[in-house]
Amino acid sequence: xRPTIARVTWIVLLAALAGTAVLIAQQPxxxxxxxxxxxGGLKPDGAHWLTFGGNYGNQRHSPLTQLTPANVNRLxxxxxxxxxxxxxxxxxxxxxxxxxxxxxxxxxxxxxxARTGRQIWRxxxxxxxxxxxxxCCGLVNRGFGVLGDKLFMTTLDAHLVALDxxxxxxxxxxxxxxxxxxxxxxxxxxxxxxxxxxxxxxxxFGIRGFIDAYEANTGKRAWRTYxxxxxxxxxxxxxxxxxxxxxxxxxxxxxxxxxxxxxxxxGTGNPGPDYHSESREGDNLYSDSLMALDADTGxxxxxYQFTPHDVHDWDSTQVPILADLTIGGQPRKVVxxxxxxxxxxxxxxxTGKVIVAKPFVTTTWAKExxxxxxxxxxxxxxxxxxxxxxxxxxxxxxxxxxxAYDPSTRTFFVNxxxxxxxxxxxxxxxxxxxxxxxxxxxxxxSTPESPVYGALRAIDPTTGGLKWEFRYLNPSTAxxxxxxxxxxxxxxxxxxxxxxxxxxxxxxWNYQLGATMHGTSxxxxxxxxxxxxxxxxxxxxxAWALPQ
Amino acid sequence: xxxxxxxxxxxxxxxxxxxxxxxxxxxxxxSKNPLEGDPAAIQAGMGLFRGRCADxxxxxxxxxxxxxxxxxxxSGRTDDGxxxxxxxxxxxxxxxxxxxxxxxxxxxxxAYLRTLAAPAPTDPPRGNAQNGEKLFRANCxxxxxVNATGGRLGxxxxxxxxxxxxxxxxxxxxxxxxxxxxxxEPVTITPxxxxxxxxxxxxxxxxxxxxxDTRERIQGYEKDKVKAVVNDTKSAMPxxxxxxxxxxxxxxxIRYLQSMRGFxxxxxx
Lengths: 548, 269
Prior knowledge:
The complex is a heterodimer of chains A (about 550) and B (about 270). Chain A is mainly beta. Chain A has one domain: Quinoprotein alcohol dehydrogenase-like superfamily (Methanol Dehydrogenase, Chain A), CATH 2.140.10.10. Chain A is built from two helices and 39 strands. Chain A is globular, with a radius of gyration of 24 Å. Chain B has about 270 residues and is of the alpha+beta class. Chain B folds into three domains: about 5-115, Cytochrome c-like domain (Cytochrome Bc1 Complex, Chain D, domain 2, Orthogonal Bundle), CATH 1.10.760.10; about 130-180 and about 240-265, Orthogonal Bundle (Cytochrome Bc1 Complex, Chain D, domain 2); about 185-230, SH3 type barrels (Roll), CATH 2.30.30.100. Chain B contains ten helices and seven strands. In chain B, strand 4 and strand 5 (about 210-215) form a beta hairpin. In chain B, helix 7 crosses helix 10. The radius of gyration of chain B is 21 Å and the shape is globular. The termini of chain B are far apart. The chains are: A mainly beta (about 550), B alpha+beta (about 270). The interface between A and B is large, with 47 and 31 residues.
């Protein structure tokens, strides 16, 4: 039988369909991102980075070992991505199935091919006139959260948006608060089970801070916990008069999650007005605190206040890191916290009690932390119109740039600053939506006797003691990444990307990026069997790997 | 939160420069500060000034790295001109643009600064600028440039008349200020072989240093490829005591410097 055209067409069509079926069978779409996958943290296959700190403990410690202290000096760039906009990265990128999910300044966001850096989609939020936005210190964003087929991003006009992971289209948009009265949001959401947990910035604008949880599927608010208790609630009496209504206490850096206790841990911002504090006499709970909240209900389990009645703008919005340690022969479940106020803390994360509290930079405002957990203040540190010199300065001993923790050596790493300042205070007037700080600070200049500098410090969390330090010329604002092979990645204030030996602080490799890693941390992952390190700095992302 | 990040943001947006200013100056910008004398505005302006400007201009506005601005009205500047300077910055100087500063915030800052403003000096201007120019050419022009003529090792003084008060100029020339400005810190580099190289530091990181040497050669050096990089503690600017520059010559020199109010191609020799 001779084939007819129709018969040939059928055969070709059937073959094509079979081929497609084979193709589909060979490459099933990746399953949706599950809560279990996020809870699993970073895996030796290096296939994903699904939450701000790498795992729920915020350790930023990768199990990958292809890059080592012996070969890291052979790193070469694989590609560079440029945002093509003004404003800088302050983000932690996410990765899954060879795709990177990146948030940038001005609420821009991208999905990028991790093999090439090429864009798959781009999202841009229609923001109000940027002159009306109140984010105090840059129109930035610190990263996505992810669950199922959605990415979650907070916005400068105080919303939380869910984007379709495959297209970047908006799935839902929830209003956190009214941006016109001082609210903004820059925090990377923390996804716990089926909820997306976020906070608001605005400590310089007379807000009343809160932590919110939203249903990931619908954007419906599940709970809200104010960081300043209302009338009748415990702690409201730590604010004089009505000062609680405009007491700031924002939440703008991602917390940690302990599945065993079902608790989230969030550091809270400064009380407002920042420096002139007569109107808010009292401890001002829960400003400058670590709050432990039930992840399902937002109910406060415990709190620890690092700086009662702060007058130096020392937000405690640093990144908390969770670990299990043996201290004094006893197993302890701890949360570690290097604070802007100059003290390093190891707290019991089941009770909030202080285990270790020790200065990790020059600290002149408190002699020590007493056995009751309260700092023992030193005189002469209350700002006034004439000014009072205090160490650390306004930016603090450290700040929002993420620290890291290596569980194999039980070492906490932080980029620390050695800077002091003269703090001034004067009585401010509250006008909704306007700055409400009541003071200012002027940094002291570097002198040979009292140099201004920064250092990467390796701290023993069981004692607060210093294991080693690597000194920078000037204070660095870079976040950190450690690996199981004994590497630590950091950046200096002059734009150098640095790789060091995490056991001894020896510098192994450096590269001039042309911009600082201000508030950004590198992430690391595997693509096609090769370990990559991805570094956001300024307006560029650069991926590094060993030569093929 | 930090003023550090505010400064970074300001610096970044400063890159937009003058084009942005043109778009942001309101059409009906008043020539006179509408908030002058308003106690609430003065109070708010003090906060804004101290938080955002004082790092360079000093808490008392009498100048640190940036100019003394207490005599800025006495020097003839107008309210609307100063408003534009704050909004748009001064190109090619460290004064950044402030595109995110709200219109009324700038008026508040100016309302506060007005309360610090010094009256115009009642003393008649002293000195002879013509002789001052001669003194400048003989003593200063080896290192300082005005209107595209002179040395490059020290700061360009083409607009020093608006940027520095007489008092600050006197102290600097007499040698009582030893503060080293960024870009002019003295440094000595000792190469693996050859003579030490002296100059001023233009930039530095952990691994390299960029300098202008005393022959005005600009060059970068990798620290691990030289014997030593030593930061000198004494300014390269010599002190001109009364033995080197009489009081009367000092008056002449300052009178000349006060006439330096920005690059003026018409006066190029």
